[in-house]
Amino acid sequence: MYATKIKMQRGCYYSRSLLEIDEIYIEGCNNPGFFKKEVLHDFLRDTPGSIQVKIWPYPNVIPATSSRGEKYVRSTPNDYTHDNLLDLPRE
After folding, report:
1. Could you report the per-residue pLDDT of 9-68, keeping only the tens digit for each?
2. What is the rounded CA–CA span in Å between residue 21 and residue 35?
3. How far is the C-alpha of 70 from the C-alpha of 80, rounded, in Å?
4. Which candidate, 57, 65, 10, places its Cα nearest to that of 40?
5. Which residue ranges make up each domain of the chain?
6. pTM
7. pLDDT digit string (tens) for 68-85?
8. Contact 68, 21 (CB under 8 A)
9. Which of the two ends of the chain, N or C, has the fewest CB atoms closer than 10 A to its terminal CB?
């Protein structure tokens, strides 16, 4: 499955913070569409390696938790200076 676009929280369209992603569009599954980051966090905790960002080098999407206990997702680190999820098209 692939993450192909993101929706940011209201008023955060141009943000470069992973915590301000609200929903991520997932394709390649039985029910493609936007999923809340918290739902993806729980799914990926149970099925690691099942979703990649659809941008080369196709890093895995992994669950993370902020210092305040907020569930979110990010991509595995690579040579980019920022997270690949933030380069996906925004709606």
Report:
1. 999 999 999 999 999 999 999 999 999 999 999 999 999 999 999 998 999 999 999 999
2. 11
3. 24
4. 65
5. 2-87
6. 0.93
7. 999 999 998 766 677 999
8. no
9. C
